[in-house]
Recover the amino acids of this structure.
């Protein structure tokens, strides 16, 4: 593990590109599938992702035991072997398990952790006070990501609140922006840093598997931190934007949009993603830990039809 600690670069505010949120592969019986985990990591790196994020909401983190979380993260970090940064979701009901998980994964070679507010905080002052305690818990040496995802947390963080958190949090180096609608909010946060009101941090977006990625990049996002069964879409869109070929970025995005939209359905989205990843040979099973949805025959037929159309469209624009 000493080798990993020497070669892994910690997350910082200059982060750009695509930090793909991975699924957690399971066997049909519901056990962790570490062989598929290795195959999934190889697939993501082959597609050109800049980094990885594990134990996110779509990674079924709440269905894992503490030991399973450590085993999975260790498997991912071992396979990555320092080639890209890995961010680990560390949100927890209390600060003791947050600290325990953070210490564990940072020792293993994680680049940083991600924290979302708990549903128990409601007022602006409560939210800011909570993240002051996050700073105390994580300490001065752990870079962390502020996750703004009100759909899952039930916590609305306004632009002024986020700016207050950033001002109080020198080790918060990234905002995972996934409020929706959120383009105006993204523009406001970026404008505040440009005016010098707050230091500039990396902003990676997570809305709906990249459903608003071109517009978010135009508004000042540095890339994406979300999941999609075709991560190459986000990689190619970000590369086109970086090359200032905006039209190409939109053309690529449009080709994947129907399937990306289908994958973002409330309730069955993760099942769709895992089904496609299994069809692509990335994971052995599309199993979701209970409680979880199952696709119908009609769902599977829809996915097959959209995949054929996507393949044809990509060939046309190649």
């Amino acid at each position: 593990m000493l080798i990993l600690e020497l070669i892994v670069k910690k997350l910082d505010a200059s982060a750009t590109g695509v930090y793909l949120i991975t699924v957690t592969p399971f066997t049909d019986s519901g056990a962790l599938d570490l062989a598929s985990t290795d195959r999934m990591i190889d697939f993501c790196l082959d597609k050109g992702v800049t980094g990885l994020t594990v134990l996110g909401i779509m990674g079924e983190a709440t269905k894992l035991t503490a030991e399973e979380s450590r085993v999975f993260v260790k498997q991912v970090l071992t396979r990555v072997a320092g080639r890209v940064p890995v961010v680990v979701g560390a949100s927890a009901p209390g600060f003791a398990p947050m600290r325990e998980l953070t210490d564990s994964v940072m020792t293993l070679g994680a680049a940083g952790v991600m924290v979302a507010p708990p549903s128990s905080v409601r007022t602006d002052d409560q939210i800011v006070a909570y993240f002051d305690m996050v700073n105390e818990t994580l300490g001065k040496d752990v870079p962390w990501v502020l996750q703004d995802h009100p759909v899952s947390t039930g916590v609305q963080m306004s632009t002024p609140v986020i700016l207050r958190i950033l001002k109080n949090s020198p080790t918060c180096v990234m905002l995972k922006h996934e409020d929706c609608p959120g383009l105006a909010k993204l523009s406001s946060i970026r404008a505040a840093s440009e005016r010098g009101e707050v230091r500039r941090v990396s902003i990676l977006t997570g809305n709906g598997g990249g459903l608003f990625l071109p517009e978010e990049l135009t508004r000042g996002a540095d890339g994406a931190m979300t999941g999609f069964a075709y991560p190459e879409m986000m990689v190619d869109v970000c590369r086109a934007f970086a090359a200032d070929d905006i039209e190409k970025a939109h053309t690529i995005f449009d080709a994947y949009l129907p399937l990306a939209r289908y994958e973002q359905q409330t309730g069955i989205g993760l099942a769709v993603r895992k089904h496609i990843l299994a069809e692509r040979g990335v994971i052995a099973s599309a199993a979701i830990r209970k409680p979880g949805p199952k696709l119908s025959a009609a769902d599977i037929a829809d996915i097959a039809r959209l995949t054929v159309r996507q393949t044809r469209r990509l060939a046309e624009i190649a």
Q: What stands out?
A: The chain has one domain: 2-244.
